[in-house]
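Slack export, channel: ligand-projects

TW: morning all. Re-posting the request from yesterday since it got buried. We need the structure predicted with the small molecule present, not the apo form. The ligand is adenosine-5'-triphosphate; the SMILES is in the block with the sequence. No rush, but it would help planning for next week.
GE: picking it up
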Amino acid sequence: MQVYALALEKGGVGKTCLAVNLAAAFARLSLRVLLIDLDAQSHATHWLGGTGATIRPEDSFLGLLNGRSILDCVRETEEGVTLLPAHPALASVPVQLASAPNSGLFVLQDAIARVNQPQPQFDIIIFDLAPARGPVLATALAAATRCIAPVQPEDLVLRALQALMDSVSQAQRVNPKLQGVSIVRNRYAARSAGDQVYDNLLRTSYQQQLLKTVIPVRAALRDSAGLQQSIFRYNGPDANEVRNLFLDLVDELITLDGGS
Ligand SMILES: Nc1ncnc2c1ncn2[C@@H]1O[C@H](COP(=O)(O)OP(=O)(O)OP(=O)(O)O)[C@@H](O)[C@H]1O
Ligand SMILES: [Mg+2]
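GE: finished. pasting the full token output, ligand included:
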């Protein structure tokens, strides 16, 4: 079982877009996929068709924090992806984690261990994280096997990437299964001279971590979100090209980690 944490403190880089479409891509390969939405903004939940009114705070990570099991909280989606939804009340999680045993560091790791007994229920688990460092990221990294960071060639994004590398190094002290960070160039166009400076920096400083597949800006990704469809259900222009890119990304991850 692989556990991928989509993370970067910089907002709007494509964490949710990658979380949803990677989840859908793995599901197309008949793998059992669980997406856990850890962001109070609930964007992944919405994208996967979750509607606010049917989701209670206890169906979200807050339920896990209060001892519920993953299987008590999840719902199935039209993408073939199982969803543990977010709720706006997740905004209180950092405070609640602070008063939990070990600052709640092992809540996700323990919940996943329980869902694996007696048999693993999922092949792939994906966390969609808010653009923040702090206790929720630490709890996610304590349970993850790999962190995935979407980036663009910009100074602030690369600074956030360095901060994420530090968070991952810290998390590896408590979680030996955490392999490190893989970087995905998303919404990527290194056109101006300024962009190329950061593009070169990325290639030289993070050569080992950089995945080969590059996702360009494509309206299909934005438009499919509006229709609450992954790129695999969306039928507009460019959908085929983008689907193939997500399948390439999945291939790269399977080569790194194995599929289950
Ligand atoms: N490759 C792409 N082409 C076009 N639009 C994209 C692409 N990737 C993401 N987007 C769009 O850009 C916006 C921001 O992406 P997304 O919500 O995935 O970022 P995020 O990192 O999850 O943001 P936050 O930090 O707020 O959670 C969304 O409207 C999304 O649909
Ligand atoms: Mg997001």
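GE: first-pass observations. Residues 15-16, 39, 43, 128 surround magnesium ion (ligand 2) (CB under 6 Å). The CA atoms of residues 209 and 223 lie 30 Å apart.
TW: perfect, thank you
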